[in-house]
Specification:
Helix content is about 35%, strand content about 25%. The protein has about 290 residues and is α/β, with parallel strands linked by helices. The chain has 2 domains: about 70 residues, membrane protein fhac (Ubiquitin-like (UB roll), Roll); about 140 residues, Rossmann fold (3-Layer(aba) Sandwich).
Length: about 290
């Protein structure tokens, strides 16, 4: 059996050994100092906010910060007055009242503008820096559009727009407008192909009138002279064009006679000569 008396003695000793904690009196001086510091902090913040508000009002009302000059940079196709009209910045407006981001987005609504960066130059100037789109081809989507160097379809052609670009065919309008991912990738491949042709000497972009996207997914080129179809297929376009350039000086005088050139067979250039149309039989009847 347990020794209850022994346990009771231990319990009494334990209670006797406990130290009675005494409550410390509140240090009113420290509390007062702490409250004073918090009050000063909030007062200082309020003072800064109020001061900032009045300074802002003074700056908005001051003639020192009224815009008197708009500088346009990076524009080649658009005239300065066109960019100024797109920005809707009025001479004499206070520079601090301008929403620079909104102004940039307004300017970017013009199809020729890829990026517009708007900056304040204190005290009285605004600088608009443009990155304009660079067309590399015309794409036929029912209407003719420009295709830029990023593979973006960006502008329907007007009466005054230049037609001196290769034409891209074989694309669907709806998919192109919906930014179909496969179409977008294919258009970027065409841009790369056109850039490759632009750098070449023997068979260059000057010899190409059309880039066609086949239903199978590959590409074909059509020569400016003779309209000869050059089958490029899906990939390794640069290697295939290297192979064509090795014999193009021999083929060039005979383009009018060719049906197509196939570059899809490895290490070969297959040339098909156009079959001559049968001539109609001569009229053998005599004249009476």
């Amino acid at each position: 059996m347990r020794d209850l008396k022994k346990n009771q003695k231990k319990s009494k000793k334990t209670h006797q050994n406990r130290i009675k904690k005494q409550k410390k009196p509140l240090n009113w001086r420290n509390l007062l100092h702490r409250g004073l510091r918090v009050g000063i902090t909030f007062f200082s913040i309020a003072l800064v906010l109020i001061g900032g508000f009045f300074v802002t009002q003074l700056m908005l009302a001051s003639d020192l910060f009224r815009v008197d000059k708009i500088v346009v940079r990076g524009n080649e196709r658009l005239m300065e007055r066109q960019v100024e009209a797109l920005s809707d910045i009025q001479i004499g407006i206070n520079t601090f009242s301008l929403d620079l981001g909104l102004i940039g987005r307004k300017i970017e609504e013009n199809p020729w503008v890829q990026k517009a960066d708007v900056q304040r130059i204190f005290p009285r100037q605004v600088v608009i820096s443009l990155k304009e789109r660079e067309p590399v081809a015309i794409i036929n989507l029912g209407y003719l559009y420009y295709l830029d160097d990023q593979g973006e379809v960006f502008k329907v052609l007007g009466a005054k727009d230049s037609l001196d670009y290769p034409i891209v065919t074989g694309f669907n309008y709806d998919k192109a407008q919906d930014h179909d991912s496969e179409y977008a990738q294919t258009l970027r491949q065409i841009v790369v192909l056109l850039a490759d042709l632009r750098k070449r000497d023997l068979f260059s972009l000057a010899q190409v009138s059309e880039v066609h996207h086949e239903e199978s997914g590959g590409f074909s080129l059509f020569t400016l002279k003779g309209g000869v179809k050059i089958k490029l297929g899906y990939d390794e376009h640069s290697k295939k064009l290297d192979r064509l350039e090795r014999i193009f000086t021999q083929l060039q005088p005979k383009l009018q006679m060719l049906d197509y050139i196939d570059l899809n067979v490895e290490e070969k250039v297959i040339v098909r000569i156009e079959r001559l149309k049968k001539r109609p039989k001569a009229d053998t009847k005599g004249v009476s």
